[in-house]
Design goal:
single chain; mainly alpha; 8 helices; 51% helix; disordered N terminus
């Protein structure tokens, strides 16, 4: 699925060993990445929203000053930084790898649609490099971020009883619960933790332009993810239904406790919050997968 945001002329993812519904296994369990069944192609349905539509919704309707409202504004900044990170990666592709013919012309920040065309062009050219693999995984990650953005609007509208037509913001209708979420055990993804990636990036040095910026941008992105998941855990902890609250101790673990929260979320009686938490888990998994791929690319 393609999402359009902006248009720069570049001169270049513990309760059990298996993680919740998506069965995303850590690198210690995965012998190799199992990415043959990709969840980003045009025939794979998930909700979508543009960055501009998300910003307009939050600016217009999310006027409260509480845990959830603040997290929505954080989500907007998180999304913008993702596209800044992807832009550095695209510039590296052009200026260092010589991908000028594959990277579409874009202004300021590369959009999701432009990134998809970059991946498609590399694919059509028969590129099977580690860089192509990182570009491919970045596309999936981007789509899952937009999926979570779209699902957050559904939860916001229903939990706040807003008189809003989401058809004015979402691309297509909101899906039935469970649609766009892989079946348990469908795939395995290698990942790296925030701490491990940060320690590696702390010592990382490279000469090619934009590659160093991409690595450091990924550190910031991962910290923003940790902050965002922590805000959502705090919001869950404030909810009236006790079965929707994270178990004692999870909030102190920050984003690291999200997989354990997922393992208990099926008992939550708030169906829209339950669905949002699952979709946010897919987003989290794919970001940690991208961190793994970025680290592997530098070897």
């Amino acid at each position: 699925m393609i999402f359009k945001t902006n248009t720069y002329r570049p001169a270049p993812m513990v309760m059990g060993l298996i993680l919740s519904f998506s069965m995303v296994m850590g690198p210690q369990m995965a012998n190799a990445d199992q990415d043959d069944r990709l969840d980003h192609r045009k025939d794979y349905r998930m909700e979508s929203i543009s960055g501009g539509a998300f910003r307009n919704y939050v600016s217009t309707h999310v006027t409260e000053d509480d845990l959830w409202a603040r997290s929505m504004r954080t989500f907007g900044s998180f999304h913008n930084h993702m596209h800044e990170l992807m832009s550095h990666m695209a510039k590296y592709g052009v200026e260092v790898r010589g991908d000028r013919e594959h990277v579409p012309e874009f202004t300021h920040r590369i959009s999701g649609g432009e990134w998809a065309r970059y991946r498609e062009s590399l694919e059509e050219a028969g590129d099977d490099s580690d860089w192509y693999e990182l570009v491919r995984i970045t596309e999936i990650m981007h789509d899952r971020v937009h999926h979570a953005m779209a699902r957050s609007l559904v939860y916001d509208r229903d939990s706040r009883n807003r008189d809003v037509d989401l058809g004015d913001f979402l691309r297509g209708e909101a899906l039935e619960h469970g649609a766009g979420i892989p079946d348990a055990g469908e795939r395995r993804i290698s990942e790296v933790s925030l701490d491990a990636f940060r320690e590696w990036a702390w010592r990382y040095e490279t000469e090619p332009p934009h590659l160093h910026e991409s690595v450091q941008g990924m550190v910031v992105f991962a910290h923003l993810l940790d902050d965002l998941l922590t805000q959502w855990l705090a919001h869950g902890d404030s909810m009236a239904p006790e079965n929707c609250r994270p178990q004692p101790g999870l909030l102190a673990r920050r984003g690291e406790g999200w997989s354990d929260y997922l393992a208990q979320i099926e008992d939550c009686e708030d169906a829209e919050w339950r669905e949002f938490v699952k979709v946010a888990g897919l987003m989290r998994d794919r970001i940690h997968h991208m961190m793994h791929k970025m680290k592997a690319y530098q070897k």
